[in-house]
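Now for one record.
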Amino acid sequence: MLRDKFREFSRDTSTIGQERVDSVNRLADEMISTGHSENATIAEWKDSLNEAWADLLELIDTRSQMLAASYELHRFYHDARETLSQVQNKQKQLPDEAGRDLNTAEALQRMHTAYEHDIQALSAQVKQVQDDAARLQKAYAGEKADDIRKHEQSVSEAWSDLLSRSSDRRQLLVDTVDKFRFFGMVRDLLLWMDDINLQIDAQEKPRDVSAADLVIKNHQGIKAEMEARTDSFNACIAMGDDLLAKGHYASTKVRVVAVQKTVVIARN
């Protein structure tokens, strides 16, 4: 507000004042050229006027620079506080829930992808605060320079913390989705094995050749189905091994499920 008012004052003063000074100079030159009896006094007053006008213009310029510097500093403080507030609000928006099943975990994963895209919009504001702070610290010393550094540091630390927490949550959701996918694969294979066992148990002992042929055909069909499931078993085992190798947060439960599946396979 003060800066705008002084800018208007400076513009009006420079325009109107220059016109008046030019008018007085022309009058003085005319009087001197016509041989006025007070030529020396007129010339002296003319020089004094021009010198005073030059001093005033320099004072206006100095004041303008001071107000511009003050405006820039206060704008930096405002931008730094505003950016810090936005970063902190984004921190508060990070949920703790990882999902109770595969569907909710995948939904949360999609939401977090959108969240990460959203916070990247803040990166330009953070960088602007950092760039402005670096430039302003060269123009100031002492307490003001320290205050500028503290404002920039607060923003940078909050931003770094936000990125770190966002990255941790992204990994948590990836691990959670992997966990539910693994458990789902194990569940499907165990249910399939239970169904195979029921088919085998339901078969009666053959009493003649035709019945024996039927049993053999059934067993061949079951064997073919089991062979067709080999890739699924291998993929499930590989995924469990990979989760354990990565130190998955649910490694203990993954190991228990893997052991249970192995026991069931051994019994069959």
